[in-house]
Amino acid sequence: MATINPEILKSQGIRFVRIIWCDTGNVIRGKAIHIDTLAERLDIGVGLSTAQQAIPVMADAVAPDSGLGPVGEVWLRPDWSTLKPLPYAPGQARVFGDMSANGEPWPWCSRQFLRRMIDQAAAVGLEIKAAFEPEFYLLRMDGDIIHPADQTVFATTLAMDTHWAVVDAIAAALIDQGLIIEQYYPESGPGQQEISVRYTDALGAADQHIIYRETVKAVARHHGLIASFVPKIFDQAAGSGCHLHLSLWQGEQNITHDGQGKLSALAQHFTAGLLEHLPALMAVTTPSPNSYRRIRPQCWSGAYRTWGFDNREAAIRIPTNAAGPSPTHVEYKTLDNAANPYLALGCVIAAGLDGVQKHHSLPEPITVDPAILTEDERQSRHIERLPQSLAQAIAAFRQDQVLVEALSKDYANTILAVREDEWKAMQNFTLEEEVQLLLERY
């Protein structure tokens, strides 16, 4: 464990240290310890009710039949290796927390769940590296009316000129926290942005995504804007996805490719596992009723259960590189920013490992937009439309024993209870009602 000296932090101007977690409803939460009492809590952290992992996104109320309630205490123990001062909140620092009970990892902790899946991958000789690729909107409010911060289209330099100050400030704040920025461009929607960060180990990738979301929203506020990661804000404009890029490693070697421009046999099995479990995965990777407004055919969102090289309409895309080696990673497209990144990545790893362990075979890659095929053509190629509602994804998840057992039946039951509570609350919402509720939750 990293050695932390509260007096040194105090001399650096730190007054509060936030210990944060991401709950089952994907709300980032935290408790802050004042620097004067930090020494007393270096190991134990802060206490939480067990009910905190059974809270849906709508309100601070426990989801029925979640198996958790107001009786019971867990401890959010700081992972001091993740401590960073917050460049957008001078005097405060952040550290990620791991939940424990009776001195042991608590099974309902999503960060601990991802660790377990990383360990399972290591047990078969694999390291998973990953990067989340989030899109978000910059918005302005006029009373209760939401307006995009510009009216530009994809990759226009006008949008770059309009938002250079806030984008530069976001990038600088991310770099200050240890993230590596790869590229930036305005996305298709008016006011929509994408800033890509470098891949890292799986746990670090999920932590990076939390840092990213917090930083973008905070810096945007400093510039008089609202940044929102809601999957679908405007009905007639592009939705915001969060594609997940995955690569398979053994030691220092990327073994995603076979050295001849194709996926390695291991990567094929892994990708086949993703395809096998895709409908169930969507209960954790596209977990909001709002998510399904984005996942439509011919919207580059991965509405069909299929894969292909450089095919942006396939749910799983294999990007190729201009120079070898290629391909170096797999892109899981059916994911958005409503997803808790630890749950999403952990379940994706569990699905991929199932494909590896059972030697699942990939069907032939699809080389066209699946939406232009006839229904008979799709059936002959075993191409299915993915769930079109959260209810359908919940039903698939409930039947998926691989994911349920990976999470543990108790944790899976809690996740299902939260998802069902969210579905019941929002299934009849208009888009405007969803956005009003979720705008600043994600």
Number of helical elements:
12
User: How much helix is in the residues?
Assistant: 25-40%
Q: How is the main sheet built?
A: 12 strands, mixed
CATH 2nd-level architecture of the largest domain: 2-Layer Sandwich
Number of domains: 2
CATH class wording of the largest domain: Alpha Beta
Main traits of this protein?
Ubiquitin-like (UB roll); Creatine Kinase, Chain A, domain 2; seven-stranded mixed sheet; alpha+beta; 2 domains; 12 helices; single chain; 442 residues; twelve-stranded mixed sheet; globular
If you had to describe this structure to a student in words, what would you say it looks like?
The protein has 442 residues and is α+β, with helices and mostly antiparallel strands. It has two domains: 6-104, Ubiquitin-like (UB roll) (Roll), CATH 3.10.20; 116-438, Glutamine synthetase/guanido kinase, catalytic domain (Creatine Kinase, Chain A, domain 2, 2-Layer Sandwich). It is 34% helix and 23% strand. The chain has twelve helices and 19 strands. The protein has helices spanning 6-11, 110-123, 157-176, 202-222, 265-285, 291-294, 341-358, 375-380, 390-398, 401-407, 409-426, 431-438; strands at 16-22, 28-34, 46-49, 73-78, 84-85, 92-101, 104-105, 127-142, 145-148, 181-186, 192-197, 200-201, 226-228, 242-250, 253-254, 304-309, 314-318, 330-332, 384-385. Strands 8, 9, 10, 11, 12, 13, 14, 15, 16, 17, 18 and 19 form a twelve-stranded mixed beta sheet that branches. Strand 14 and strand 15 (253-254) form a beta hairpin. Helix 5 (265-285) runs antiparallel to helix 7. The longest helix is centred in the middle third of the chain and has 21 residues, at 202-222. The two termini are 31 Å apart. The model has no long low-confidence stretch (mean pLDDT 96).
